[in-house]
From TrEMBL:
Protein name: Long-chain-acyl-CoA synthetase
Keyword tRNA-binding: no
Residue intervals of the AMP-dependent synthetase/ligase domain: 49-373
Organism of derivation: Alcanivorax jadensis T9
Keyword field: ATP-binding, Ligase, Nucleotide-binding
Gene3D superfamilies per UniProt: 3.30.300.30, N-terminal domain of ligase-like
AMP-binding enzyme C-terminal domain span: 489-565
UniProt keyword annotation of Glycoprotein present: no
Name of a matching Pfam family: AMP-binding_C
Family the entry assigns: Belongs to the ATP-dependent AMP-binding enzyme family.
InterPro entries, per database record: AMP-bd_C (IPR025110), AMP-bd_C_sf (IPR045851), AMP-dep_synth/lig_dom (IPR000873), ANL_N_sf (IPR042099)
Top-level lineage group: Bacteria
Amino acid sequence: MPVKKVGWRDLAKGVRYMVPPLLDIQRGNLLRLAGLRPASKQSIGKVIEYWARRTPHNIALRFEDQQWTYAQFNAWANRLAACWAEQGVGPGDTVAIMMENRPEALACVAATVKLGAIAGMLNHNQSGEVLEHSIQLVTPRLLVVSAECAAALATTCFTPVASAPNTAQPAPSICYLWHGGDQGEPAPPGWLDLDEYAARQSQANPPGTGRVRAEQPCFSIFTSGTTGLPKASVMTHYRWLAAMAGVGGMTLGIRRKDVFYCCLPLYHNNALTVAWGSVLSMGASLALDRKFSASQFWERVRHYDATVFCYIGELLRYLLNVKPCPTDRQHRIRLITGNGLRPEIWDQFEQRFGIHRIYEFYGASESNIGFINLFGVSQTAGFTPLPFAIVEFDNDTETPRRNHNGFMQRIPRGGIGLLISEVTPRRPFDGYTDPAAGEKKLLRDVFKKGDCWFNSGDLVRDQGMHHIQFVDRVGDTFRWKGENVAAGEVEGAIAQHPDIDHGVVYGVSIPGCDGRAGMAAVTLSPGVTLNGPGLAQHLNRLLPAYAVPLFLRIRDHQETTGTFKYRKVELKQQGFAPDQVAEPVYVLLDSQRGYQPLTAELARQIQQGEIRL
């Protein structure tokens, strides 16, 4: 696929995206944030109270066949906040929340931030050591759990009743709150029933909400843990409010009557900040669903009569993989926003579903910079007015290159390098709950002595005009035959083959060879068998020879995180040897013959250098 560069003509065409329908937008609340500073007494709780006061009867939240007005949602959050306060929760304390997507989860978040406390958004897909590690990272004062997550919590030491002899017990200061889930399961011994407890509380606004400052933390958002145990990144009210105003209000042009559909997990910032923040920017409605379903997605969109939705990772590719039907364009979606839309399927998605306003963005929970497709240019992660740099990167050492003076060097337009952004008082790096983990993300003495820059850990392409295109995570780019191979670009080429449903690309070591050879774990489309010569021909046509994967692994399905990121660590560790891989493995020894089964003997010859690749 040709490299997409951005020029003045693209910006001129996109000016219309920057002029939202002013008559439909009530800017009053956004104007109040124009002078936002870290020390400002502005917070998420104040925004909720603003809409509850100004538009009390507008719908704030919809879930399945239920709905809550802004007045009702604010009162609900206040009752929960009173519960928290009665248990001693105050500014800076953490309330850990472990629920699937449900309205109670969002109400618990709102209650927490109203007190100046921090919502620790636990991943309900975790269990055992990983979940225990996550809870320990945030040291919660309260732990709020819904019945559907009880089994996962029982695999940790965090339970008010010992589940087994010699099981370590958590700190006695933790208060355990129980939500009965869909079936209203009664609270087990040692737990407080959330609904019963809240029903006895006042629905008045907490007096402390007005004292919460923008610089205070509001959420702990966990990394996906694709390369190890999760880290808890810190989100402040300041960054959340800036995203609310900049993305939802000024960029997307969210309207009061919009219904924003979200089926992404609330423990992820795409849901908690992008979706909910966009809704609160204009007092619109959030339509929350339990989880993403490719087969039911458009039916759910129509159920809520949604006008906007957010996406992440492979979600849009999953929608494209569903067989086309006449109702593909029977919806009222006018714009979508998210990240991870690969360039090779951008136009296909836009045309099939008739959605022409795609606000792709780039950002991370811990990052102090963001990009968004403000001008409506295709195949870009977007534009930012903030200063940033893309510097030369050494894929062998996985570190940015420095010149003879010890400083980093910017790459030319069109080049690929490491994205970094300067850390300043107005653009701080909020870091993680673990200070040591935060320090590892900082680069010092980058262009001059004493400066400090945030290391995004992402390789991007400089498209010009302050636009970037995401290429890969550091570590997903490997070197072979003296050339850098971006796994994401190879995955894009694989995805264009009609027989391939999903494909994951990574590098594997071969004894006696420098660098790492490309390997792809692919899932074939239903009813399809591998056409080794055809796939090799397809990839050789789209990719340079050094980037074509040498090994192929056929999988029934791909393992992903809760936010659709592929798990590659185990795949890299297993490599290509048939005795390490339970699934069929193929090798490309001859472009004409294509991919052929990798036998134990062939693997032995490759590992011992008898066959040179």
